[in-house]
Amino acid sequence: MHQKEDEEVPLNDDVYHAGSDSDDFNDKYDYAAAKRPRRGWRSCLGMTVSLLAIILVSGLTGAWISFAFLNMDQNCALHTTQWYVDIKYAFKEFDGHFMEENIYRKNASAEVDAAWEALGVDYRAGVISYEDGLASGLDSSFVQRNPKYGGGFLVNVEGLHHLHCLNLVRKSLYFNYDHYKAIGTHAFMNEGHAFQLHVTHCLDTIRQVLMCNVDTAVLGQVWATKEDPMAFPDFNTRHMCKNYDAVREWGEKLQAPPNDELPPDFLVIPTPEQIIPKIP
Predict the structure, then answer these.
(1) Are 85 and 74 contacting, i.e. CB atoms less than 8 angstroms apart?
(2) pTM for the full model?
(3) Which tens digits make up the pLDDT trace of 134-156?
(4) Nearest CA among 169, 196, 171 for reference residue 181
(5) Residue 85: CB partners within 8 Å, gap ≥ 6?
(6) Contact (Cβ atoms closer than 8 angstroms) between residue 153 and residue 131
(7) How far is 223 from 234, CA to CA, in rounded Å?
(8) Residue 90: helix, strand or coil by DSSP?
(9) Key word GTP-binding present in the record (predicted)?
(10) DSSP 154-205
(11) Strand partners, 224
């Protein structure tokens, strides 16, 4: 049997030899670290410009996002309004009490009428400029104020008209109708079918408005009455709402003078082509 040292033979005995200092060994294994090439000034300039561009783009993007969030009210309003008003949004708690009546729900009276009228339900038509009218979708066939008195289009704020319609429906309820019929003003000057057309026009306008602005909030249910608990919807819900008072104030300022104060030539006389054949 061979000795152990005889079996352990280096792979390259000529090179791997203890104590060897041959020239061949030094030539084969004398390594020097490779030199890294220096970056030219053009390369440094390119990197600097790229870094500055990234910083600039990031800054502009952050500013744009911040601006968008700061002006979210106006961004939302652009999608839900056709006229510029300083719209703001805030949370409102709906008064949905089922068993307790607020002033708007009570039986007909002068006090109740005053509360509704304070909402702007009876505001007169207003006037906007000719340019603003065109931007709102009107054209020269719509009723205009005589240029002699400043020109422009006669308009009604739709949101105030919607409340006007709701007020008429309120007055037409069976427990209020006789009161307002006895007074005999506005729609209650009409009889029969004409009155019915006015009320149903208002009813269907409100339907369309509610469907156009359909609310996706949900009504939870609570346990009510301790004697005999039952599940009942809680209508006192929290909503994000527009600042109605700003819209009302805008509509108030738009108003033209009362009809009995208008000069006979206040309106532009229409041409035959501008008169439509029937009431729309």
Answers:
(1) no
(2) 0.73
(3) 999 999 999 999 999 999 999 99
(4) 171
(5) 77, 246, 247, 250
(6) no
(7) 9
(8) strand
(9) no
(10) EE--HHHHHHHHHHHHHHTSTTTHHHHHHHT-GGGGS-HHHHHHHHHHHHHH
(11) 230
Q: Taken in order 146, 150, 153, 155, is the CA torsion positive or negative? A: negative
**Nearest by Cα to 74 from 90, 58, 87:** 87
Neighbours of 180 (CB within 10 A): 19
Judge contact between 83 and 126, C-beta under 8 A: no
d(CA 122, CA 259): 14
DSSP for 191-255, written as a single string: -HHHHHHHHHHHHHHHHHHHHHT-------EEEE-SSS-EEEE----EEEEE-HHHHHHHHHHHB
- Per-residue model confidence as pLDDT tens digits over 113-135: 999 999 999 999 999 999 999 99
**Cα dist. 248→45, 72, 253, 255 in Å?**
60, 22, 9, 11
Q: Cα(177)–Cα(171) distance, rounded to whole angstroms?
A: 6
* Distance of alpha carbon 48 from alpha carbon 73, whole angstroms: 40
